[in-house]
Design a protein that fits this description.
The protein has 235 residues and is of the alpha+beta class. The protein has 6 helices and 17 strands.
C-alpha cells in the first residue's frame, strides 16, 4: 500500500473548524489536552494533515463531515464588536447571532458603532477570498454627520485623498439631505482602511455620528432588519 504523504488533505485544526466543532485555535488547545484522536491514536500536535478517509474523534465521539461552504447576510446593530472575545467585556456579534447557525466567521469587520451589512461564512477559504483587496468590490455606505457639507470638497474625493501621510483611494461621495445640524451622505469606495470614512469626513470638518453599510460587492443589505440573519442562496 502506498504511504500517504504528510502534505495530503488539510490540517486537523482546519478540518475540526470546518466541521463546526470549534475554532482552529480552540482545536489546537483540545489537541494539547489529548482530546482529539485520528484513527484511534491521540494527537500530541496539530501538525498533521488528514483526509476524508481518516477517522477523527473528539472526546471519543466521531466528527461528522464538514458542511459545504455557506454564506449569510447579517444586519449588524450598533454597539457590537466584531470579535469572538472582547477583553473589555463588551457585547460581540457572535453573542447575538441565532443559536441555529453553525460556527461562522465574519468577512472583514465593522467598527463597534457601525451598522449594516456584515457577511458571515462557515468556510475559511470563502472568507479569505471575499476579503481579498484584488476583488475590488464596491462598498456603499450611508453616513450621518454633524456639520455643513461642501459639495465641491465631496466631489474632490473622487481624485483620492491624503490624511497624515496616508493615501486614500477614490471615494464617490454625495449629499443626500440636510437634517437639522446634520447631513446625510452616500459614499462608495473600493477599499476598507481602518475608520476610513470617519477620518476622511473629519478632514472635511464633518463629525460622523451614524454609519450604515448598505452593500459589499454584489451583496445588499436591502430590507433585512437589524439583528436578523439571512442565508445567501447558492447558485
Amino acid at each position: 500500500m502506498e504511504k500517504k504523504s504528510q502534505f495530503e488533505g488539510d490540517r486537523i485544526a482546519k478540518v475540526l473548524a470546518r466541521a463546526g466543532v470549534c475554532s482552529r485555535r480552540d482545536a489546537e488547545r483540545m489537541i494539547a489536552d489529548g482530546r482529539v484522536a485520528v484513527n484511534g491514536r491521540k494527537l500530541a500536535t496539530p501538525a498533521l494533515n488528514v483526509t476524508p478517509s481518516d477517522h477523527i474523534t473528539v472526546d471519543g465521539k466521531p466528527v461528522g463531515e464538514p458542511d459545504p461552504p455557506r454564506l449569510w447576510r447579517y444586519h449588524k446593530p450598533a454597539g457590537l464588536v466584531t470579535t469572538n472575545r472582547d477583553p473589555q467585556g463588551r457585547d460581540t456579534v457572535f453573542q447575538k447571532l441565532p443559536g441555529s447557525l453553525p460556527r461562522v466567521n465574519t468577512v472583514g469587520r465593522l467598527d463597534i458603532n457601525t451598522e449594516g451589512l456584515l457577511l458571515l461564512t462557515n468556510d475559511g477559504g470563502m472568507k479569505r477570498f471575499l476579503e481579498l483587496p484584488s476583488t475590488g468590490w464596491l462598498r456603499r455606505y450611508r453616513a450621518r454627520a454633524f456639520g455643513k457639507a461642501d459639495e465641491a470638497r465631496l466631489k474632490a474625493l473622487k481624485k483620492g485623498f491624503e490624511i497624515d501621510g496616508v493615501n486614500y483611494r477614490s471615494i464617490d461621495a454625495s449629499l443626500e439631505r440636510v437634517q437639522g445640524g446634520n447631513v446625510w451622505l452616500t459614499m462608495a469606495l473600493r477599499e476598507g482602511k481602518n475608520r476610513e470614512i470617519k477620518k476622511v469626513l473629519e478632514a472635511l470638518d464633518l463629525q460622523v455620528n451614524r454609519l450604515i453599510r448598505l452593500s459589499f460587492g454584489p451583496f445588499q443589505l436591502g430590507q433585512l432588519e437589524a439583528g436578523k440573519v439571512e442565508e445567501v442562496p447558492r447558485r
